[in-house]
Specification:
Mean pLDDT: 89
Structural class: mainly beta
CATH superfamily of one domain: TonB-dependent receptor, plug domain
Membrane topology: Multi-pass membrane protein
CATH class of one domain: Mainly Beta
Number of strands: 47
Largest sheet: 22 strands, antiparallel, barrel
Organism: Sphingomonas qomolangmaensis
Pfam families: Plug, TonB_dep_Rec_b-barrel
Helix content: under 10%
Keywords: Cell outer membrane, Membrane, Receptor, Signal, TonB box, Transmembrane, Transmembrane beta strand, Transport
Main location: membrane
């Protein structure tokens, strides 16, 4: 497990980084004389047109998103293209980072997201989200073909793709289900590989942050050649990358390696709705009154006695001049409900979250193609990839609301005496369990994928018809292992210690018989035997196998010439089968469901139906579904004249039959019009798109997540509760309506090198598959708004742990709209200098992002501009670059606008607040700043075949903005200034 280096290890980190650069220099020798042949345009790519390759090189606006293959065809759906030159200039260890910086990609995951999670299985998963509607509503393709998912949501992991052979990435901003099938609601991201690469090329890179951590190594090598008079083509690539990650910090507020921006900002619920003051207040340096690092008595006459690591008692400093009331409720006079400000912060646990998961990835790829006729090829591609990640979700394993007997032999004698004086036999106790160590989560995803196909063009009926027929099989094995985590019931038995025959033992005879060892949580000195009892060496695990089989048949041609040009037709069919199986450890899944073994012996103390771990209670499950579909797409030219310009109407329809939910239709209708004004084009398209429920939503193995500080409004207290997430086989597909309208200027003879486009988009998704959050379920019952939710939880369970059941339904809807703006200019020989100067800017404005839960008496929430989420009001990316035959320079700016904490909050001051409600809660501040990041980079051509390069990301070392929930890695850079150096070579 790597969590970055500590401050004293910074020198070692720099030595390792220097070693990487030395390796790069050795590998990139100038003995490479043969230049790699340029890649030929791939006419089966998305878009199905050769112009996209040239468009990528000059950064023109490209229109795409169709199955039509026809010279000069332009589809009405706007598309952004990232070419290999841009990928190289951004110099990231993972191409995912380069693509996800585009403004229209909002809410993508990656190694800085999901680091706070124990049970999600999404740690380190690199998946795209277009328009902020989620990775499950964005279709990611490799050479126009689906890729098996990397977890049960079906989202692929881009880290597993053969990155050095990628020559461009097409990002379709809009619905494309009629052309490409399910999931293309937000759009499509398609990676196009160079299938005809010749020569050898490589890349070696190293990086490190300004804080001496997240050291990374990247080594890539690709080769291609041809045989049999250029009819047999072979390309291969291999890649190794290792990014150490960042984290964790210390207990309290100290982050990893000297980062000083964290202040334990907290959204405090005062629990009072109508006293003229805001219900919610934002406070820095907040501390829980429910636990400390090594233990705190939290209620009753001894409230406020804390313990140091040695177990010695001392008077706890609550901050806020807080004074413990000594009552049974455990309130602290002068503090908020549950929190104080300042004082002793040493027990706070949030700083222990990893800021970035460590990730190690390896992949190998090969493709063999044989031209049995000119422009006709039979091919086979194989890839084997592995990605390992690790993270620490949080420090400690905090347990508030424990009950400790005064007679417990680990309780200091002075405290036992105070118990006797106060006339009590037990006290309420809370601890972050620092002595138990910190939980670590590791994932291992292995993917095996093969594609065999035949494609090309043949004359039929006097015109050429393109065809593409393929079979794809992919299998992903995804393992999750959690280390250093306690078994809750064993913990409860172990802390209940007594003296028996002069020895300290567990009170329960049954627990003693099954191996219980008494655990001292008064301070921080538990015995090794007690630690092994409550935290066995073999922790929770999940073993998942996913498989995907796809047979696709696609044809495209122009069978007839009409008054304005050829009628173009595309049609085809696809069959897809998706399967998954997940197996979990018996302590999480259920002891009765899995044969006992040495690592998980039967223990009567534990619950037979599982849910025994503090977190990571994975379950067993399996499921499968099949998809049969067929589509037809037509492009009808309607105008072709000098006076009126050139216009076409493009339409498509697809019928899809899901084995789980029946038949659904998708369609699109749109068109483009090249106006008689040179270079000016208008376009528009509207479509009906679909996302079918995925394997996880349909057949989810119940996943249990621990909520250690869940607020119980019925008793006004924080409790430990379990959230059980379960599947629903009755789910229906989500139905979306997409509309895009735009205007573009490109290739005008009167303004050479310049392009600009403005597009309006609107997406409305109905029957959205969503789950009501655990807090919502309880609050809706507590306020009497939805009595049906009252049966979904038990927060006062005497027969087992408190729990809330969370299940997905077709309840909600999402509506979002906004504008995309893209502009570029390329100036050849600027001011008479050799080379070229290029400027490119992309921006997205989110006008609205309204989510309606579908629940009665609730108000739809507009999260546009909510900077705790994924959709800021404005987000843009701009680059300026100069290049010539000797060197290049790059300046890049990334920015998003100021935002707010939540859309429905009412900001007010004490004495002037209206009554706070669930739909319009009052708050004292509702602001989260945006951010501006400046990156610089450059290259130097050492020889004709060797190029050295550098990149500095976040040059100004901008810290992330704080939020009441730590910070938001979906928007902000959590790492700080990062330096990258490397060399590329070819021969």
């Amino acid at each position: 497990m790597r969590n970055g280096v500590n401050g004293s290890g910074r020198a070692t980190a720099h030595i390792r980084f220097a070693s990487v650069l030395a390796i790069a220099c050795c590998l990139a020798t100038p003995a490479m004389a043969q230049e790699a042949a340029p890649a030929a345009p791939d006419e089966t790519a998305l878009p199905a047109q050769a112009e996209a390759d040239s468009a990528a090189s000059v950064q023109d606006v490209v229109v795409t998103g169709s199955r039509i293959v026809s010279s000069g065809f332009n589809a009405p759906t706007p598309t952004t293209v990232i070419g290999d030159a841009q990928i190289e200039a951004n110099a990231q260890p993972n191409i995912f980072t380069t693509v996800s910086q585009l403004p229209s990609l909002q809410g993508s995951s990656g190694t800085q997201v999901n680091t706070f999670s124990t049970s999600s299985g999404a740690q380190g998963l690199s998946s795209f989200s277009l328009r902020g509607v989620g990775a499950i509503r964005t279709l990611t393709l490799l050479d126009g073909q689906r890729v098996v998912g990397a977890n049960v949501t079906g989202s692929p992991d881009v880290s597993l793709f053969p990155q050095l052979l990628i020559k461009r990435v097409d990002i379709v901003n809009g619905g494309a289900s009629a052309s490409y099938g399910s999931d293309a609601v937000g759009g499509v991201v398609n990676f196009i590989t160079d299938t005809r690469f010749k020569g050898v090329k490589g890349n070696v890179q190293g990086s490190i942050t300004d804080y001496g951590d997240d050291e990374s190594v990247l080594v890539q090598l690709a080769a291609g050649t041809s045989f049999m008079e250029d009819r047999l083509h072979l390309v291969v690539s291999t890649e190794y990358a290792d990014e150490a990650g960042v984290g964790p910090g210390e207990f309290g507020i100290d982050l990893a390696n000297g980062r000083d921006w964290y202040t334990q900002r907290t959204l405090v619920n005062r629990g009072v709705l109508n006293d003229g003051s805001p219900q919610y207040v934002i406070r820095d340096f907040a501390q829980s009154i429910g636990f400390t690092k090594y233990g705190l008595i939290t209620a009753g006459p001894l409230q406020g006695i804390a313990f140091d690591q040695s177990g010695s008692p001392f008077e706890f400093d609550y901050g806020s001049n807080g004074v413990p009331s000594g009552n049974a409720a455990g309130t602290v006079i002068g503090c908020f409900a549950g929190f104080c400000e300042g004082g002793d912060l040493s027990g706070n646990v949030d700083a222990g979250r990893s800021l970035k998961s460590g990730i190690e990835r390896m992949n190998s790829y090969g493709r063999l193609g044989f031209d049995f006729l000119p422009n006709n090829e039979v091919y086979l591609s194989l890839s084997v990839s592995q990605v390992k990640t690790n993270n620490q979700p949080i420090n400690g394993q905090n347990r508030p609301n424990l009950t400790i007997q005064c007679a417990n032999p680990f309780v200091p004698a002075s405290v036992s005496a105070q118990c006797a004086t106060a006339g009590i036999t037990s006290f309420r106790y809370g601890t972050s369990n620092a002595a138990l160590g910190n939980t670590q989560v590791s994932t291992d995803r292995r993917q095996y994928r093969g594609v065999v196909g035949i494609k090309g063009a043949l004359p039929v009926g006097g015109s050429d018809w393109n065809y593409d027929i393929y079979y794809q099989h992919g299998t992903t094995y995804a393992d999750i292992d959690v280390d250093n985590i306690l078994l809750s019931n064993r913990f409860n038995q172990a802390i209940d210690a007594v003296m028996l025959n002069g020895a300290i033992v567990c009170r329960s005879a049954a627990a003693r018989a099954s191996g219980c060892q008494p655990l001292n949580i008064i301070g921080g000195n538990p015995s090794e035997a007690a630690l092994r009892y409550v935290q066995p060496e073999q922790g929770p695990y999940q073993r998942t196998r996913l498989s995907q089989d796809v047979i696709g048949v696609n044809f495209s041609g122009s069978p007839v010439d009409l008054w304005a040009g050829p009628l173009s037709v595309a049609f085809g069919a696809e069959f897809r089968h998706e399967f998954y199986r997940v197996e979990a450890d018996p302590y999480g899944a259920g002891i009765t469901n899995t044969p006992n073994n040495a690592d998980y012996p039967f223990d009567p103390v534990l619950l037979a139906d599982g849910n025994n771990w503090y977190a990571g209670n994975y379950k067993n499950g399996n499921g499968a579904y099949g998809v049969k579909e067929a589509y037809l797409e037509l492009d009808l030219p309607v105008i072709n004249s000098d006076a009126m310009g050139r216009a076409n109407i493009n339409g498509a329809a697809r019928i899809t039959d899901y084995s789980t939910s029946g038949t659904v239709w998708t369609w699109k209708i749109g068109g483009t019009w090249d106006l008689p004004i040179d270079g000016l084009r208008i376009r528009g398209v509207t479509s009906r798109d679909v996302r079918a429920p995925n394997l996880s939503e349909l057949f989810a193995a119940p996943v249990t997540t621990t909520l250690p500080n869940f607020f119980d409004p019925f008793q006004n207290r924080n409790i430990l509760a379990l959230q059980n997430s379960i599947g629903n086989t009755e789910l229906r597909p989500e139905i979306a309506r997409n509309t895009n309208l735009g205007i573009a200027l490109s290739g005008a003879s009167w303004l050479p090198g310049f392009s600009v486009s403005v597009d309006y988009y609107s997406i409305k998704i109905d029957d959205v598959i969503s789950s009501i959050g655990a807090g919502q379920i309880v609050d809706l019952c507590f306020q009497g708004l939805v009595p049906e939710t009252c049966s979904a939880f038990n927060l006062n369970n005497t027969n087992g742990p408190n729990f809330i059941n969370v299940q997905a339904f077709n309840l909600a809807s999402i509506k979002t709209s906004g504008f995309d703006i893209e502009a570029g200019y390329r100036w050849v020989q600027p001011l008479g200098l050799p080379g070229s100067f290029s400027v490119r800017a992309l921006a997205t404005h989110v006008r609205e992002f309204i989510t309606d839960t579908g629940l009665p008496n609730t108000v739809p929430a507009d999260s546009a501009g909510v900077n705790l989420g994924n959709t800021p009001d404005w987000k843009w990316l701009a680059t300026q670059s100069y290049e010539n035959d000797n060197f290049s320079l790059l300046v890049q700016e990334r920015w998003f606008s100021d935002g707010k904490i939540g859309a429905n909050y009412v900001v007010c001051e004490a004495g002037s607040c209206p009554v706070s409600t669930s739909n319009a809660p009052t708050i004292d501040q509702n602001f989260v700043p945006g951010a501006f990041y400046l990156d610089i980079g450059g290259t130097l051509n050492v020889t004709e075949d060797v190029t050295a390069y550098f990149k500095v990301d976040n040059l100004l070392n901008r810290d992330p903005a704080l939020s009441p929930f730590f910070s938001n890695p979906a928007l902000y850079d959590m790492l700080g200034r990062t330096f990258r150096l490397g060399m590329r070579f070819k021969m």
